[in-house]
Amino acid sequence: MTREQLADKALISVESIRRYENGAKIPVRTLYLLATILDVGIDELRGLPKQMIRRQMP
C-alpha cells in the first residue's frame, strides 16, 4: 500500500503520514484507524522502528 492509498483510506493527508513516520505524535483516533487499515495491533504500530515502517510503504 502506498502512502497515498493509506492517506486516502484514513482520510488524512500524505504529509500527515510523513510526519508520523518521522516521529510526530499520532492522534488516538488516527492511531486506531491506521492500525485497523494496516491490520496490526496498536502496540505493534507504535513500536515499529521507523525503518520498518518506511520499508513497508514505498
Largest sheet: none
Number of strands: 0
Q: For the record, give the distance between the C-alpha atoms at the N and C termini, rounded to a whole number.
A: 8 Å
The tally of domains stands at 1
Q: What is the chains' assembly state? A: single chain
Q: Based on the structure given, which CATH architecture is correct?
A: Orthogonal Bundle
Number of helices: 5
Content of β-strand: under 5%
Given this structure, which CATH class is correct? Mainly Alpha
Determine the CATH topology.
434 Repressor (Amino-terminal Domain)
Could you say which structural class the secondary elements and strand pairing correspond to? mainly alpha
The string of secondary-structure elements, in order, is: HHHHH
Low-confidence stretches: none
Shape descriptor reads: globular
Question: What is the mean pLDDT?
Answer: 84
Question: Which helices and strands appear, and what pairs or packs with what?
Answer:
Blueprint lengths: L2 H8 L3 H8 L6 H11 L3 H6 L2 H7 L2
